[in-house]
Amino acid sequence: MHKIHGYIFFILSLIICSCSSKLDVGQINLENWKNDRNGCKGLRIKDLEEFEKIRNSFLEANNQELILTFGRPDRVVLFDKSQSFFVYYLEPSPSCEGRVDEQESLKVLFRLNALSRVSEVTVTSFDP
After folding, report:
1. Which of 21-25, 33-37, 97-101, 111-115 has the lowest mean pLDDT?
2. Full-model pTM
3. What are the boundaries of each domain within the chain?
4. d(CA 122, CA 81)
5. pLDDT at 15
6. Residue 119 or residue 82, greater confidence
7. d(CA 41, CA 34)
8. How do residues 30-54 score in pLDDT, each as one tens digit?
9. How far, in Å, CA of 111 to CA of 42, rounded?
10. Which residue, among 49, 40, 56, has the nearest Cα to 88 in the 3D structure?
11. Cα–Cα distance between 22 and 100 in angstroms, integer?
12. Which are the contacts of 65, defined by CB distance < 8 A and separation ≥ 6?
């Protein structure tokens, strides 16, 4: 009986893990993206043109696919009970050491609906 529970747990784990996979990002350098927390190193901005070309391909992706692909978001903003935003800075965020200007940083906003699916992708300097 104990063995059966182990098999069931193993199979369920495989099913859950197989539901989320990395997204196709074209020519975006994901190593640079993941190593540029808060946009402090200026690596993400290099892929802005490529990101703009394919941003609508991320619609309907789930939150786990975003995390597997782009890494942990720099910020998560809860908008209301049914929506949230994943924020990835393209330019240095206010938390970057040595940042002196007061301008808003350019960032990617993934709007997630109540089902944790991307409903909108925006590149903007405005906060959600």
Report:
1. 97-101
2. 0.82
3. 23-124
4. 21
5. 44
6. 119
7. 11
8. 999 999 999 999 999 999 999 999 9
9. 23
10. 40
11. 35
12. 20, 21, 22, 23
Q: What is the pLDDT of residue 19?
A: 63
- Nearest-angstrom CA–CA distance, 62 and 64: 6
CATH of 23-124, one of 3.30.1450, 1.10.10, 3.40.50, 1.20.120: 3.30.1450
CA distance 99 to 105: 11
Two tokens, residue 12:
């369920």
Instruction: State both tokens at 52.
Output: 């703009």
Give ∠ CA 52-66-127 in degrees, rounded to 5: 60
DSSP string, 64-117: HHHHHHH-S-SEEEEEETTEEEEEEESS--TTSTT----SPPPEEEEEE-TTSB
Residue 127 has a pLDDT of 87
